[in-house]
Specification:
The protein is α/β, with parallel strands linked by helices. It has a single domain, classed as 3-Layer(aba) Sandwich (Rossmann fold), CATH 3.40.50. A five-stranded parallel sheet has the order 2-1-3-4-5, sandwiched between helices. Helix 2 runs parallel beside helix 3.
Length: 136
C-alpha cells in the first residue's frame, strides 16, 4: 500500500442499482471493513456531502452517464466543495472513449475505471486505485 492509509469509507454515485450492488460486493471482497455509501445521481450526492449526511469519504467513485447531472458536472461540483479538493474522485463508467477519459482528467479526476465484465476484474481495478499514491 505504498505507506498510504487504507480507505475506510467509499462513496459511490451511480444511477444503476445493479452496478451499485456489484460495486458494494467488490468492496466487501477487497476489505469488509470498508463502508460504502451511495447516491443515485449527482444532485443527491452533493446534497449528502454538503449536508454531511455522509462523512468525508476516502474515495469517491462517480458513474459518467447519469440523469440530472452527469459525472463530469458532479466531479466539478465536488471539487468546489470546501475540503474536497484533495479527495480522490474516480470516474467509473462503461465508456472507454479517450475524450471522456481526458475530459475527466482535465477536471481533476484521480483515475478512470472502465466498468469491467468480470467481478474479479472489478475487484482488481478498485484495489489498484486504492494502491495508488495520493498527493495531498
Amino acid at each position: 500500500m505504498h505507506g498510504e492509509k487504507k480507505p475506510s469509507l467509499v462513496f459511490l454515485v451511480d444511477d444503476d442499482l445493479d452496478d451499485q450492488m456489484l460495486f458494494r460486493d467488490a468492496i466487501i471482497e477487497i476489505d469488509p471493513a470498508i463502508e460504502v455509501f451511495t447516491a443515485v445521481n449527482g444532485v443527491q450526492a452533493l446534497q449528502k456531502l454538503t449536508k454531511e449526511l455522509v462523512a468525508k469519504p476516502d474515495f469517491i467513485f462517480i458513474d459518467l452517464n447519469m440523469p440530472l447531472m452527469n459525472g463530469i458536472q458532479c466531479l466539478k461540483e465536488i471539487k468546489r466543495l470546501p475540503g474536497f479538493l484533495h479527495v480522490p474522485v474516480v470516474i467509473y463508467s462503461t465508456s472507454s472513449y479517450e475524450k471522456d477519459i481526458q475530459q475527466t482528467a482535465d477536471n481533476g479526476a484521480f483515475h478512470y475505471i472502465i466498468k469491467p465484465f468480470s467481478f474479479q476484474e472489478l475487484c482488481s481495478r478498485i484495489q489498484n486505485v486504492f494502491d495508488m499514491p495520493i498527493d495531498e
